[in-house]
Amino acid sequence: MRHGGWWNGAALALTTCTHNERLKCKRRAFNALIVAYRNQRIGQSSVPLPSFLDEAHRLHSFAPPFRFSAFFSPEDTLLCACASESALRRLKESNSERSYTRIAELTTGSGLVGFHLLQCDDRNRLIGLDVDCRATEVAERNAKVLRLDRRAWFECADLWSESTLDTLAAYDPDLIVCNPPYVPEPRTEMLELEAGAGMDGTAHLIRAIELASAIRPDAMTLSWCSLSDPQKVVQSAADAGYSLRSLFIVAIADGEYSGTVRDHLVALPHAYINESRETIAAVAPDGSARFAYLLMAGDFMRDESEHRHDADVVLSIQRLCERFRASGLSALLNPEMTIPTNTWLLDRWGELDLRVILHGRDTYRKRAG
Ligand SMILES: C[S@@+](CC[C@H](N)C(=O)[O-])C[C@H]1O[C@@H](n2cnc3c(N)ncnc32)[C@H](O)[C@@H]1O
Predict the structure, then answer these.
(1) pLDDT for the residue numbered 46
(2) According to the model, what pLDDT value does residue 199 have?
(3) Angle, helix 112-120 to helix 133-145, in steps of 10 degrees
(4) Does ligand 1 have an atom closer than 6 angstroms to the CB of 107?
(5) How far apart are CA 79 and CA 74, in angstroms?
(6) What pLDDT shows up at residue 98?
(7) pLDDT at residue number 45
(8) Under 8 Å CB-to-CB from 361, ≥6 apart: which residues?
(9) For residues 126 and 118, is the Cβ–Cβ distance under 8 A?
(10) pTM value?
């Protein structure tokens, strides 16, 4: 039969319904279709990378009534949460006397990453800054929803303003976290303040590193991607005295109609995408992608020792990105990095699942009756 086992499962769910349960059964059958079809599809995947959905348990406390601000996308936020957890663990290992960790989340948005770190240890404290005052209002409301408002403060602040530096200096964080905008801006078109990230996508990241260099927290977590000059980010952090200790990478799809974004990116010397058929089939089995690229996040520690290996790390990131550009996802199966590196795949179904965890299920249930 054309549809195979998943179709039979859904049909069975429908025919076993009583008349009164018809509506409920239709919904159950629909869910059975989705789950069974997805399982069948995962079974067919030719690239044996772990699914990033394996890490999605971190998002479960951020379902409604938790709210999001503009420019939110779950995958980079979740990746930043993974890297931040690692930084937190490393901080604790480096100083077991530390009673709690003061966290500063720059470009905080809804505050999700900072809240996750507060949930990791109920002694931790958070300050979250964002240039979008609507975002800090949302974050303040979220803090109340999660009952974390006694340990979390939010301020509307631009990364580039002097007062931000003063606020951070007064707070004296142990850990700075920053998941900012990082997509390179087209030459012809300056994006809005809160969305633009400069010609190579690194403007906010370099500013976050400058702030860390002035404030000197023990650790820093940054998020960036293979489009935003990965070597430059890691080298700039190293120049400021922060060594990358572990790296987190997710391969995802990018879709656009016109192809002009793709043309812009391939013209940049340090933007890495892959357009091979096998890679696109893995990240977007429905064909809804033009290319794949890599989301990246890293945990960095302040390191003033003489025996640092930053140059090797930068070189290994460059090689990994070049191998990804040349041969696609197979580069992630064996990343050949000099530091611990976690790699995952998030396909279109996975993107949808993340959205459903965060925005959907309850809302859908309420609407469907
Ligand atoms: C991609 S969102 C990420 C939000 C949050 N970090 C997360 O992981 O969900 C980027 C955030 O950066 C903020 N932002 C952009 N430019 C900024 C600036 N100059 N200073 C402070 N925040 C900024 C935006 O308002 C937006 O909330």
Answers:
(1) 65
(2) 81
(3) 30
(4) yes
(5) 9
(6) 81
(7) 54
(8) 63
(9) yes
(10) 0.86
SS3 letters for the chain? CCCHHHHHHHHHHHHCCCCCCHHHHHHHHHHHHHHHHHHHHHHHCCCCCCEHHHHHHHHHHHCCCCCCCCCCCHHHHHHHHHHHHHHHHHHHHHCCCCCCCEEEEECCCCCHHHHHHHHHCCCCEEEEEECCHHHHHHHHHHHHHCCCCCCEEEEECCCCCHHHHHHHHHHCCCEEEECCCCCCCCCCCCCCCCCCCCCCCCHHHHHHHHHHHHHCCCEEEEEEECCCCHHHHHHHHHHCCEEEEEEEEEEEEECCCCCHHHHHHHHCCCCCCECCHHHHHHHCCCCCCCEEEEEEEEEEEECCCCCCCHHHHHHHHHHHHHHHHHHCCHHHHCCCCCCCEEEEECCHHHHHHHHHHHHHHHHHHHHCC
Where do we find the tokens 């850990």? 175
CATH number of 52-367: 3.40.50.150
**How high is the pLDDT of residue 1?**
29
How much is the pLDDT for 135? 97
Instruction: Kindly state if the Cβ of 159 falls inside 6 Å of ligand 1.
Output: yes
CA of 130 to the centre of ligand 1 (A): 6
How far apart (Å, rounded) are the C-alpha atoms in residues 54 and 49? 11
Q: pLDDT at position 109, please?
A: 97
Cβ of 358 less than 6 Å from ligand 1:
no
The protein residue whose alpha carbon is closest to atom 8 in ligand 1 is 77
Which is the closest atom of ligand 1 to the Cα of 207? 19
By alpha-carbon position, which residue is closest to atom 24 of ligand 1? 194
Task: Return the residue matching tokens 């489009």.
Answer: 227
CA dist 36 and 124 (Å) reads: 41
Express each pLDDT in 7-25 by its tens digit: 343 444 444 444 445 545 4
**Residue stretches of the chain with pLDDT short of 70:** 1-46, 187-196, 257, 361-369
The confidence score (pLDDT) of residue 365 equals: 53
- Residue in the structure block whose two tokens are 């656009």: 256
Instruction: Check pocket membership of 75 for ligand 1, CB cut-off 6 A.
Output: no
Is the CB of 180 within 6 Å of ligand 1? Answer: yes
Kindly give the interhelix angle for 310-327 and 230-239, rounded to the nearest 10 degrees.
170
The tokens describing 111, both together, are 């505050």
Residue 339 · residue 246 · CB < 8 Å = yes
